[in-house]
C-alpha cells in the first residue's frame, strides 16, 4: 500500500468535506460516502490519505458511529477504501492496484495530455501555458548594453558554472533589498527555474524518496519528480469553491504530513501558487517553516511568480526565506515570468556549501550558462521597473477581461480572484475538465484540465485558465469554451479517458 500520504484528523476531514449539500436526500451513510468520494475526485482529499477512525469521525460530524461505519463499508465495497487490521483505512481510486499511485514514479496516464492531438494554426488559442510576450523595448535596450559589455569577457574561457559574478550579485541584492540578506556565494545561476528545480531535486533526493507537493501543483515539477523516480506525496489545497479562512494551505496538515510520511524534500509555491494563484499568508509561512525545521525537511520554495503582483495591490508577505534561521531553505526564481521565458535565466538561493554541490552536479549535464544572456539579465535586474510595470499591467488587464467574460458567458463556473500571477483556477459545476480538454481542439483551443495538476488523476472539476494572452484572444477563448461547455458536462467522469477508464 502506498503510505506516502498522512492520516488526516477528523477535524481536517470535516473541513475538507465542506458543508452538507442542500436538499441531500437518501440515507445519511450514503451521503457521507458520496461526500468523501467527491472530495477525492476534486483533489480536496489526497488519494492514499488515511482516514480517521469511525469513532473520531462520528464525533467530528455529530453522526452515529453506525452511520460512519456503514459509509466506510460502502466505500470499501465500491473500491474507494482499503482497510487493514491495525493500520486503519486509506483512500484509493477504484480499479487501481491499491490506490492509483502504487508506484507513482512509474505512473503516466492521468497526468498526460489524454491523447488529445495538439491543435495548430494561426487561429488556435493556447490556454495551456501561462507566459507573456516580452517587454520588447526593455529587452532590446538591455541586449544592446550586453553586446557593449561582451568584449571585456572574450579574453576568458567563457565557462562559469556558478553564473557570472555580476549576475549573482544582482540577484543577491534583490533578496537583500527584500529583507533577506544574501551574498553572491549563495546564488547559482541556472537556465531557468525548471533547471533549478531538477538540479535541486537530484542533489537533495534519491530514487524512491518522497517529495511533498501541493495538490494541485505545477505540472512540470510533478513530471520531473516522476521522471527522476521520486514519489510525489500530495497535500491538498482546496479550490475557489471550497475556500478556507487563512487561504488554502493547512499548516497543521502540512506539519502532520511532514511528521508522518518523512518526505526527503517539500516543494511549495507560496507566491501566486501555480495553478491556484493563492498567496500564503505570513502566519502560515512561519508555521510551515517551523514544521519543516521540526521534521528536519528541507523546503524548496519556488518564487517564479513572486514579482507578478497586479499594480496597486498590497505588498506580498515576506519571502519564505526570511522565516529560515539556519539557511536550510532553498529558493528558486526566474526571469521567465517577470520578463520573458526566452531569456532562460533562473537561479537557486541556498547555503554556500549546497551551492558548491549544485554547481558540481550541474556540470554533469550542462557546463555553464550563456555569457551574453547573463550580461543582458544583469541590466534587466539592475533597472527592472519599466519592464515589470508593463508585464504586471498586461496580467492585470488579462485577469479582468477573463474574469468578466467568464461571469457573463459561464456564470456557473467559479473562478479564483487572484491579486497577481498568471492564471485563474476555475471550479466547474461538475467533473468534466478532461472532456472539455478533449473537445477544445474542435473549437481551436488548447486547455489544461485539473488532473494535469495532480499525481493521481483527480481534480476533474477544475481547470486552469491563464490570462497571459491579449484581452481580445481571452474573450474569444471564453466564447469557444461556452460553445463546448454543455456537451462536455453531459459526460460522466467514468466516460473520460485518463482515470477510471
Ligand atoms: C511554478 C513554476 N516554476 C517553474 C517554472 C519554470 O520556469 P522557467 O521558464 O524559468 O524554467 C514555471 C513555468 O511555468 C512555473 O510556473
Secondary structure layout:
Blueprint: H1 10-17, H2 28-41, H3 54-61, H4 65-77, E1 81-84, E2 88-91, E3 125-127, H5 136-149, H6 165-177, E4 187-190, H7 193-204, E5 210-215, H8 219-227, E6 231-236, H9 251-261, E7 265-268, H10 282-295, E8 299-302, E9 330-334, E10 346-349, H11 352-362, H12 371-382, H13 385-409, E11 414-415, E12 423-427, H14 433-439, E13 445-449, E14 462-466, H15 471-489
Parallel strand pairs: 3-13, 5-6, 5-7, 7-8, 8-9
Antiparallel strand pairs: 1-2, 4-10, 9-10, 11-12, 12-14, 13-14
Residues 192-194, 218, 269, 274, 302, 304, 334, 336, 341, 346 line the site of pyridoxal-5'-phosphate (PLP).
Task: Tell me what the structure shows.
The chain is an alpha/beta fold and about 500 residues long. It folds into three domains: about 10-90, Arc Repressor Mutant, subunit A (Orthogonal Bundle); about 110-130 and about 390-495, Aspartate Aminotransferase, domain 1, CATH 3.90.1150; about 160-310 and about 315-385, Aspartate Aminotransferase, domain 2. About 40% of the residues lie in helices and about 10% in strands. The chain has helices at about 10-15, 30-40, 55-60, 65-75, 135-150, 165-175, 195-205, 220-225, 250-260, 280-295, 350-360, 370-380, 385-410, 435-440, 470-490; strands at about 80-85, 90, 125, 185-190, 210-215, 230-235, 265-270, 300, 330-335, 345-350, 415, 425, 445-450, 460-465. The strands form three sheets. A seven-stranded mixed β-sheet has the order 4-10-9-8-7-5-6, with helices on both faces. Strands 3-13-14-12-11 form a five-stranded mixed β-sheet, sandwiched between helices. Strand 7, helix 10 (about 280-295) and strand 8 (about 300) form a beta-alpha-beta unit. Helix 1 crosses helix 3 (about 55-60). Bound molecules: pyridoxal-5'-phosphate. This is DNA-binding transcriptional regulator, MocR family, contains an aminotransferase domain. In the C-terminal section; belongs to the class-I pyridoxal-phosphate-dependent aminotransferase family. Keywords: Aminotransferase, DNA-binding, Pyridoxal phosphate, Transcription, Transcription regulation, Transferase.
Amino acid at each position: 500500500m502506498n503510505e506516502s500520504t498522512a492520516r488526516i484528523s477528523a477535524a481536517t476531514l470535516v473541513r475538507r468535506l465542506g458543508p452538507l449539500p442542500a436538499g441531500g436526500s437518501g440515507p445519511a451513510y450514503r451521503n457521507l460516502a458520496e461526500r468523501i468520494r467527491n472530495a477525492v475526485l476534486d483533489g480536496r482529499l489526497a488519494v492514499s490519505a488515511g482516514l480517521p477512525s469511525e469513532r473520531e469521525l462520528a464525533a467530528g460530524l455529530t453522526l452515529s458511529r453506525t452511520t460512519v461505519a456503514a459509509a466506510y463499508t460502502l466505500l470499501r465495497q465500491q473500491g474507494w477504501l482499503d482497510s487493514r487490521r491495525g493500520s486503519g483505512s486509506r483512500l484509493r481510486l477504484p480499479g487501481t492496484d491499491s490506490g492509483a499511485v502504487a508506484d507513482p514514479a512509474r505512473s503516466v496516464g492521468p497526468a498526460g495530455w489524454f491523447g488529445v492531438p495538439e491543435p495548430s494554426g494561426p487561429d488556435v488559442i493556447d490556454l495551456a501555458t501561462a507566459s507573456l510576450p516580452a517587454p520588447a523595448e526593455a529587452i532590446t535596450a538591455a541586449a544592446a548594453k550586453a553586446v557593449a559589455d561582451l568584449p571585456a569577457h572574450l579574453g576568458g574561457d567563457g565557462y562559469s558554472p556558478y553564473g557570472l559574478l555580476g549576475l549573482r550579485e544582482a540577484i543577491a541584492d534583490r533578496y537583500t533589498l527584500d529583507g533577506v540578506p544574501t551574498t553572491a556565494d549563495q546564488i547559482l545561476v541556472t537556465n531557468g527555474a525548471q533547471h533549478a528545480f531538477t538540479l535541486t531535486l537530484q542533489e537533495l533526493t534519491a530514487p524512491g524518496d518522497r517529495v511533498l507537493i501541493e495538490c494541485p501543483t505545477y505540472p512540470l515539477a510533478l513530471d520531473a519528480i516522476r521522471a527522476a523516480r521520486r514519489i510525489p506525496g500530495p497535500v491538498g489545497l482546496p479550490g475557489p469553491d471550497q475556500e478556507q479562512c487563512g487561504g488554502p494551505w493547512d499548516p497543521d496538515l502540512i506539519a502532520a504530513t511532514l511528521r508522518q510520511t518523512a518526505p526527503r524534500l517539500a516543494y511549495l509555491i507560496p507566491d501566486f501558487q501555480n495553478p491556484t494563484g493563492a498567496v500564503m499568508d505570513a502566519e502560515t509561512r512561519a508555521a510551515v517553516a517551523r514544521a519543516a525545521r521540526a521534521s528536519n525537511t528541507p523546503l524548496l520554495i519556488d518564487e517564479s511568480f513572486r514579482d507578478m503582483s497586479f499594480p496597486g495591490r498590497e505588498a506580498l508577505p515576506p519571502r519564505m526565506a526570511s522565516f529560515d534561521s539556519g539557511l536550510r531553505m532553498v529558493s528558486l526564481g526566474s526571469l521567465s515570468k517577470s520578463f520573458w521565458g526566452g531569456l532562460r535565466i533562473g537561479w537557486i538561493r541556498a547555503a554556500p556549501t549546497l551551492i558548491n554541490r549544485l554547481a558540481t552536479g550541474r556540470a554533469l549535464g550542462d557546463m555553464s550558462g550563456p555569457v551574453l544572456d547573463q550580461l543582458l539579465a544583469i541590466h534587466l535586474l539592475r533597472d527592472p521597473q519599466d519592464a515589470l510595470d508593463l508585464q504586471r499591467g498586461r496580467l492585470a488587464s488579462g485577469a479582468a477581461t477573463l474574469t468578466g467574460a467568464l461571469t457573463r458567458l459561464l456564470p456557473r463556473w467559479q473562478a479564483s480572484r487572484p491579486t497577481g500571477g498568471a492564471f485563474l483556477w476555475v471550479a466547474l459545476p461538475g467533473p468534466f475538465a478532461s472532456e472539455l480538454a478533449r473537445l477544445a481542439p474542435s473549437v481551436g483551443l488548447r486547455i489544461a484540465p485539473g488532473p494535469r495538476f495532480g499525481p493521481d488523476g483527480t481534480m476533474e472539476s477544475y481547470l486552469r485558465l491563464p490570462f497571459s494572452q491579449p484581452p481580445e484572444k481571452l474573450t474569444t477563448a471564453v466564447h469557444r469554451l461556452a460553445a463546448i461547455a454543455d456537451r462536455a458536462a453531459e459526460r460522466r467522469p467514468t466516460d473520460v479517458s485518463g482515470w477510471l477508464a
